Structures are given as structure tokens and as C-alpha cells.
């Protein structure tokens, strides 16, 4: 019996050979596809099958790799995040030309899996289509009424600074971690605009909500979530994504309670914050 026949009788060897043949075929198909698309898409590094340019990226700080690639391929280039092809715009002039001079063509937003986990495709930041345009117009008009971009926001910030100074003075000049009090101060400024009120730094629910939001920002930038964005099928097995979803759900519950409280005490003649304006608008449309 020849050596080849012996090897073929081993199931593990057959599986390995099959996998190698599959990868070889995939690589050949990918190479043909890339060569056909090369004239259509902006230039960029050659991707590997399935992995794309993942091995070339610094997953902890991908922007560093993208900046280096822009020096080689120009301000518009193509990168493959796993199997997904992405066109990168680098530099202020290029981004401005796309988002300002050609706002209609570049108006839609790509929805990364982790962003969809946050928003379910809704909201001002990551929505698309006519509903997003209407929401954006409403938000900009009403947020200005509550001080965004005006002197009113300065007053809210100045007011919050007094509370922050009180916290800092309690440490009597000793070294301490300022991360949490600064986060709570920023959150209170936002809360004042959105809900029309602030929270005490000692409020356990408020602290937990802000801490969960900060934790989610950290998780969203982690290597595991970057891999999840490239390969969404990894999601169910990622511990970090499970924690992210849990935090999102808990924060939604807390915000839901706040909105219900505002709805019960709503006075259409005197809106306390952005949420009140939204509720009044909603009531108007339902009539």
C-alpha cells in the first residue's frame, strides 16, 4: 500500500487536506476578484481571504495604521476589515469635501455591529434615511433652545463646575483619581440639557449609569469588539459583548424611568429639557 493511500485512510488527514484545498481555492477566487476590482476601487493594501488586512492593523489603535497607510496610498484608499471592504477618507480637506460638498451622496452611515447593538439602527448619530433627517432637524432646533452652542450652555457648565469644585476640595489637595467626578460633571451638564435637571454625585443610580456608559466606551474600543465588527458571527461567544449588552439594557431601564417621570409631570407650556420637547412633539403628532 502506498504512502498516499495510508494517509487518505486517516480521517484527520483527509479533513486537513480538504481544508487546505478549500483555502487555496478561496485564495485563488479572492485574487481574481481583487484584480477585477482593483481598477474600480481606490488603491490599498492587498487583502488576505477572510482576514482582509486584519494582520496589518493595530487593533488596539487602528487609526495609527490607517494614518500610515494614507501616506502610502493617498487620502482615499481601501482597507478590508475582515471580509468587509471599507473606503477610508484621510485628512481634513478630503473629509470636508465628502461630508460637506457632497453631503447628499455621503449622508448615510455604515452600521458596525457594535453600533447596531447600541442603537438598533435608530437615533441621531447612527440612523439613516428620512426619519434620521427629520430627527436631526428636530434635535438641532430644540437643543439650541436649551443652550447647546449658545451662552445658555455656558451657564449650565458654570453651575456644574461649582459642584465639581466642592468634590475636589474635599480631598484637601491630596492626589486622587479625577476620572469619576469629571465624568459625573460632564454627564450632569448633558442631563441638564436633556432632562432639565442634574443629579447629586452621591446618587447611586446616577453613578451606576455613568460608570456603565464609560465601561461600554472602553469595551467598544477593545480588540475583541474590533474582531466582532469584522466577524459578527463571533458575537454570541464574546464575553465583552455580553457585558456591553447587559450595560445597555440596564441603562435603558434607568433612562426609561426618567422619561416616564417626566411624562407624568409634563407641562407643554414649560419644557424643562429636550425630552419634554420631544414628548410635546409626540403628543402633537398623535392628535
Order of helices and strands: HHHEEHHHHHHHHH
Question: Low-confidence runs (pLDDT<50, min 5 residues)?
Answer: 2-8
Q: Which structural class matches the secondary elements?
A: mainly alpha
How many extended strands?
2
Biggest β-sheet: count, sense, barrel? Answer: 2 strands, antiparallel
The gyration radius over C-alpha positions equals: 26 Å
Q: What's the shape? A: globular
Number of helices: 12
- The N- to C-terminal Cα distance equals 86 Å
Helix fraction bin: 55-70%
Average pLDDT, to the nearest integer? 83
Output the strand order for the largest sheet: 1-2
Keywords: Iron, Metal-binding
Protein name: Cytochrome P450 2K1-like
Organism: Salvelinus namaycush
Cofactor: heme
Structure commentary:
The structure is a single chain. This protein is mainly α. It is built from twelve helices and two strands, in the order αααββααααααααα. The chain has helices at 3-8, 11-37, 62-73, 92-101, 113-119, 129-145, 151-169, 179-194, 204-220, 223-230, 239-264, 274-286; strands spanning 76-81, 84-89. It has a two-stranded antiparallel sheet with strand order 1-2. Helix 8 packs across helix 9 and helix 9 (204-220) runs antiparallel to helix 11 (239-264). The radius of gyration is 26 Å and the shape is globular. The model is unreliable at 2-8 (pLDDT under 50). Keywords: Iron, Metal-binding. Belongs to the cytochrome P450 family. One of its GO terms (molecular function) is oxidoreductase activity, acting on paired donors, with incorporation or reduction of molecular oxygen, reduced flavin or flavoprotein as one donor, and incorporation of one atom of oxygen.
Amino acid at each position: 500500500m502506498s504512502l498516499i493511500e495510508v494517509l487518505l485512510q486517516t480521517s484527520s488527514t483527509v479533513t486537513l487536506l480538504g481544508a487546505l484545498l478549500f483555502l487555496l481555492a478561496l485564495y485563488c477566487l479572492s485574487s481574481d476578484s481583487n484584480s477585477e476590482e482593483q481598477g474600480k476601487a481606490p488603491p490599498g493594501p492587498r487583502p488576505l481571504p477572510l482576514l482582509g488586512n486584519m494582520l496589518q492593523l493595530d487593533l488596539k489603535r487602528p487609526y495609527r495604521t490607517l494614518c500610515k497607510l494614507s501616506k502610502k496610498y493617498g487620502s482615499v484608499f481601501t482597507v478590508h476589515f475582515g471580509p468587509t471592504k471599507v473606503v477610508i477618507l484621510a485628512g481634513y480637506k478630503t473629509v470636508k469635501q465628502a461630508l460637506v460638498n457632497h453631503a447628499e451622496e455621503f449622508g448615510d452611515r455604515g452600521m458596525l455591529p457594535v453600533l447596531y447593538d447600541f442603537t438598533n439602527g435608530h437615533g441621531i448619530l447612527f440612523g439613516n434615511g428620512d426619519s434620521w433627517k427629520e430627527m436631526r432637524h428636530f434635535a438641532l432646533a430644540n437643543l439650541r433652545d436649551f443652550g447647546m452652542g449658545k451662552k445658555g450652555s455656558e451657564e449650565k457648565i458654570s453651575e456644574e463646575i461649582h459642584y465639581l469644585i466642592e468634590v475636589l476640595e474635599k480631598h484637601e489637595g491630596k492626589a486622587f483619581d479625577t476620572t469619576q467626578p469629571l465624568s459625573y460633571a460632564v454627564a450632569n451638564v448633558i442631563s441638564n440639557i436633556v432632562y432639565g435637571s442634574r443629579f447629586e454625585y452621591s446618587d447611586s443610580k446616577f453613578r451606576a449609569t455613568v460608570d456603565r456608559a464609560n465601561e461600554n466606551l472602553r469595551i467598544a474600543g477593545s480588540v475583541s469588539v474590533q474582531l466582532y465588527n469584522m466577524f459578527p458571527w463571533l458575537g454570541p461567544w464574546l464575553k465583552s459583548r455580553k457585558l456591553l449588552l447587559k450595560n445597555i439594557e440596564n441603562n435603558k431601564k434607568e433612562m426609561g424611568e426618567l422619561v416616564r417621570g417626566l411624562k407624568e409631570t409634563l407641562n407643554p407650556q414649560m419644557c424643562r429639557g429636550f425630552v419634554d420637547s420631544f414628548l410635546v412633539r409626540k403628543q402633537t403628532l398623535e392628535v
